[in-house]
Amino acid sequence: MLRRVVVCLLAIACMAGARGAWAQQSRPADERLGGCFDGYLDKAQTEQASAPQPGQPGAPAEIRIGHLHASSGPYASISMPVYLGLKLWVEQMNAGGGAMVKPFGRKLPLRLISYDDQSNPGTAATLTNQLITQDKVDLLIADSGSVLTAVSVPIAREHKMFLFDPTGTGAAFFSKDNPYIALLADPVSTVWPRFLWEFLKSDVAAAGLTRVAILYSTNDFTGTQAASIRAALKAPGSPVQIVFDQGVPTSTSNYAVLIDNIAAANPDVVLELGYVGNDIAFLRNLQESGKNFRMVFTLYPGIETSTLLKNVGQSGLAGVFSYVTALAYSYPPEVGMTLEQFRGSWEKAYAKSGVEFGWNAIAGYVTGLVLGQTLACTDSLAQLDVRKSVFSLSGKLKTLIGTFELNEQGAQIGELTPIGQIAPEGKDGIHFTVVYPPAMASGKPIFGAK
Amino acid sequence: MRRGVREFVTVALPLLAALALAPLFYSNELLLFNFIMFLILAQGLNAIYGFTGYLPFGYVGFFGAGAYGFALAVMHLNASPLLAMACAGVAALVLGVVLTPLLRLSGAYFAIANLAAAQAVYQVISNPALQDVTKGPYGVTLSSVFAPALSYGVALIILAATLALIAWLRNARFGLALQAIREDPVSAAMAGVAVVRGRTIAWLLSALIAGLAGGVFAWHISVFYPETAFDLSFSIFAIVFTLFGGAATQLGPILGVLLLYGLYNVIGITVPQYFQLIYGVLIVLLVLFLPDGLASLATRRGFRVP
Q: Is the CB of residue A146 less than 8 Å from the CB of residue A362?
């Protein structure tokens, strides 16, 4: 009897996560895409690329792009937008005849093979192997986030397959002895908070706010950011003092007691670093607690703005500091669509998908842009040539999220997000005022607003 | 015991030979490795559930302990992979000893307490305060010992030993004593069976097997996080595969793994959006209409399933 009950419960739990297929719609291709970078090849290079290349095999019927996504489980909220953003790019390219592939001197259609790992790292590992050994993909893209990316890193390396890493920001992935990886659409976790700690040590400290509390979720993404901030704030000569420093499980959904504990330490500044659900819970609990801190910073109001606004509300976000991503700061792209164009395409394609438009959707699209430029610039589809092509884009490729820049290990050190403060706009809306760095600032911070 | 040897030769050896040769014909070695790993876990669970009736929902705790036993030995002792494998087994055994008092519980209480214990171990391992020891929630990288071919071979050896153990348990006096305990511990005790000792040995053997599986998993995959090693789906899969095939047999869990994990991968690759639905419905139907697993199809008709 026990067996029946137990297994029936398990099976029902399995079914509860079932999801339907995602709608597919093609969008017209952006005409600016498709050329090799750096002037998208000058004329001589273009002619050279158009001619058959000596020693190159015949052109394949298609370019096979292998990818993993999670339609269910804890990482679905960050994985599905990346997947749909990438799919949108593939559909746009194919609607325009495919992507320019330099070794063959012509456009080739793209085929996206994306498997669903259901947020399970073991399944992600097996499917990565499947993509490499059975589907024999030409380009390999990891799933989103560090946990699901981690299992793909050694497999790709073992098979000498270059891994396009959209948003797996764990610093451990990038080492001098592994040439088969590059981080595309998020800055590596050790570098991402640079503007934040500079802001804390300069403008914030100058305003007399020197007591800082750090509350972070204990996962690779936010834990590494917390470690970087901690190291910077504790550096010799730092005017800032850390008065509270605690990690909590990523599954934390009630911050009421933690907020009381933070208040007891009497900080001027509270940094809460978590995933979307953590930030929503923290900001809701903070609003309910009635406690006020002179400055509150959280990650996701600037990353998944729509989701945060929907769940926390205008008043809960007002005065909060956050990263300002391309959602609120315009970077003129030299390749691909502008934010407004991309948002329009997304809304047409996925309005009924239930997946919110946000930073991760842009990250998926930018991953596609890097792939396109890589194909346009590579000498062959040999993986080290692919790597060389990706690295040739460093410092030159400017998309709607800023300048793509890699360090020698393949970690993303460009695309840094400035620091901004949220202010109410209209009845239900919000807008960001960029407050740091000075070169990008559009206004002054208002401390004590939260 | 001759029957035990015969069962091992007829059931286990062909399977082991097929898995040893499979990489020559199928290049997704990780998928084959996962089959081996789940075969080990299902048989390890069979040792405790099939022979004593204790269903450890937190079986993944031993698996995770083994994975971290391996990782800690490599990271802190610079141990060779084989020595680290021994540490993986020891880590799981130590945890098994610590959790032995749980055997005082039974049924759903044991299952829930065991699950809670596994979660407690997971929380300890992933505690940021232990970052210098376990790397906390930030995961471990064991690239210095990454050797997929060798770890595949070691996994096969562990599977062979596990299958031999199950064949022995099915036919030896000790295994029969365990089955007597499962059916009625009071009667078994009155007949002179050492109930506590028997259960404890089966419990520790089961923990050891899961620990070795965790160790070889850590070796093979080389980069993982606590949530990877303590993923509850390891427990769930091992339980479902064992129940589906038929517990207390050698062949049952093998069939469970080959059919269900095979189906899991076929569905997961071809129609992933329907995976949970198909898999869930299939399991419900099979449990409702075949509660004692596939092996019962033969045993109902008087055949002995090895």
A: no
* Stretches in chain B below the pLDDT threshold 50: none
Helix orientation angle between A339-350 and A359-377, rounded to the nearest 10 degrees: 110
Q: Model's pTM, two decimal places?
A: 0.81
Give the number of other CB atoms < 10 A from CB of residue B139: 24
Mutation target vs A (from B31, B49, B276, B289; most A CBs, 10 A cutoff): B276
Q: Report CB contact under 8 Å: A218, B221.
A: no
- pLDDT > 70 fraction of chain A, expressed in percent and rounded: 87
- What confidence tens digit (pLDDT) does each residue in A245-300 have? 999 988 899 999 999 999 999 999 999 999 889 999 999 999 999 999 999 999 99
Query: Quick one: B200 exposed, middle or buried, by C-beta within 10 A (0-12, 13-18, 19+)?
Result: middle
A140-170, pLDDT tens digit by residue?
A: 999 998 889 988 998 999 999 999 999 998 8
Task: Kindly state whether A8 is in contact with chain B, defined as any CB-CB distance less than 8 angstroms.
Answer: yes
- To the nearest whole Å, the CA of A306 is away from the closest chain B CA by 26
| Alpha helices in A96-193, H assignment, sequence order | 121-129, 146-150, 152-158
Q: Which residues contact B117 (CB under 8 A, 6 or more apart)?
A: B58, B61, B99, B102
List, in order of start, the domains of chain A with CATH numbers: 22-188+330-403 (3.40.50.2300), 194-328+417-436 (3.40.50.2300)
One-letter amino acid of B54 = Y
Beta bridge partners of A406: A412
Is A382 in contact with A42 (CB distance < 8 Å)? no
Cβ contacts of B36 on chain A, cutoff 8 Å: none
CA B203 to mean position of chain CA atoms: 12
pLDDT of A25 > 50? The answer is: no
What was the ipTM of the complex prediction?
0.78
What is the predicted pLDDT for the residue at B289?
Answer: 87
Q: How many residues does chain A have?
A: 450
Q: Å from B9 to nearest chain A CA? A: 30
Q: Please list the residues that pair with A242 across neighbouring strands.
A: A212
* Residue A392: other Cβ atoms inside 10 A: 17
Which one, of A250, A193, A244, lies nearest residue A214 by Cα? A244
CA atoms within 13 A on the CB side of A115: 27
Give pLDDT, residue A57.
57
| Chain B residues close to A250, C-beta within 8 Å | 137
**CB distance A10–B279 less than 8 Å?**
no
Continuous H helices in A291-332: 305-312, 314-317
Task: Decide if B231 and A134 are in contact by the 8 Å CB cutoff.
Answer: no
Is the separation of the CB atoms in A50 and A128 below 8 Å? no
Q: Where are the alpha helices (DSSP H) in B99-231?
A: 107-125, 131-134, 148-171, 173-183, 185-190, 195-221, 226-229
